[in-house]
Amino acid sequence: MASVRRLGDDEVKLFIMGNKAGAGDAHEDKGSFVLEYAGDTFAMDPGTCDYAHPLSLTLKTCQRHNMLLPTGLAERPLGGSTWEACMRLAVTLEREGEHGAAALVRELGEGPSVRARELAVWLYTIAEARKRPDDALLFNALDAAWARIQQLVAAARSAGEQGRFA
After folding, report:
1. Nearest to 165 by CA among 123, 91, 81, 107
2. How far apart are CA 135 and CA 118, in angstroms?
């Protein structure tokens, strides 16, 4: 939705992002806004970047958009979408190993993590079919390490530690 109004001699422009549920854009920007006054931008959209860039996972979250929240509500739950959880887990495993991925599973919670693992298996299959070996290896590594990651999470839980793994 877009609105342009005059305030004195200058224009005030407001654009509110929206789309129907399940639309192709998976960014958490539905309901975010851009505000301009007299040619200056006061609330801007973070824009776009190459989806291969690690920053793309951060830029698509609601925390990086201008969002209004009712008083008393926390930010969205950590982890966001299954897609974001899958990408974060795969990249964390690649960069920090199984212990780093296990720490992230504890942070995300069991539900998002399990769905992310299932998505990784599916993405591996797609990457193989499209002959994208780097992506296939990334997602296959998450699937292959999943049992060990779960062992580390269980060990930390039983030891009562908040992020330290044996």
Report:
1. 107
2. 15
Do residues 142 and 90 lie in contact, with contact meaning Cβ atoms separated by under 8 Å? yes
Token duo for residue 121: 């298996």
Residues belonging to the chain: 166
116 phi and psi, to 5 degrees? -65, -40
Neighbouring C-beta atoms of residue 88, cutoff 10 Å: 23
What 3 state SS string does 105-132 have? HHHHCHHHHHHHHHHHHHHHHHHHHCCC
Tens of pLDDT, residue by residue over 29-66, are 777 888 898 888 888 876 666 766 666 666 677 667 77
Report helix, strand or coil for 15: strand
Residue with tokens 């997602």: 139
**Which ranges of the chain would DSSP assign to H, the alpha helix?**
55-59, 82-108, 110-129, 133-159
The residue with tokens 């939705």 is 1
Predicted confidence (pLDDT) per residue in 100-110, tens digit: 999 888 887 76
- Taking the model in full, what pTM does it have? 0.51
